[in-house]
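We include the pair:
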Amino acid sequence: MGQAKPWQIAVVVVGVLVLGISLFMTMFRGDRVEFSQTVMLVDVTTGKLYEVGRPDGVAISLPAMDPRKNPPTKTLYPAKNVDGKWYVNERVLEELGASKLAVQGLDPKTGLLSDQAQKPESLDLFK
């Protein structure tokens, strides 16, 4: 092994400086990502829309388990509002196509919920 060339030393110094600045910006920057405190879910076996509160620091595993069903089953999938209409996305439709759930209340091709006039009910998954 020979001596390090000046340009090699310069590359290492610049790399250490970039790493230091990146760490400082990551740890001490004031802006934080704010996660939503609620999630909109739809029960794909009924088509009912639910607004689910999410406590700080707690993630919701999807599909979510509906605790009111006996036995509890994973029928709660994320819903999105596009131009005032409620949908489930294509990935959910693919998963539902491969599942044995009796899907009702939504179009299996577009993911559009049948009852667009419904108001979301509140549901607590963390009792």
Residues 38-123 form one domain. The beta strands are 38-43, 49-53, 64-66, 73-78, 80-82, 85-87, 121-123.
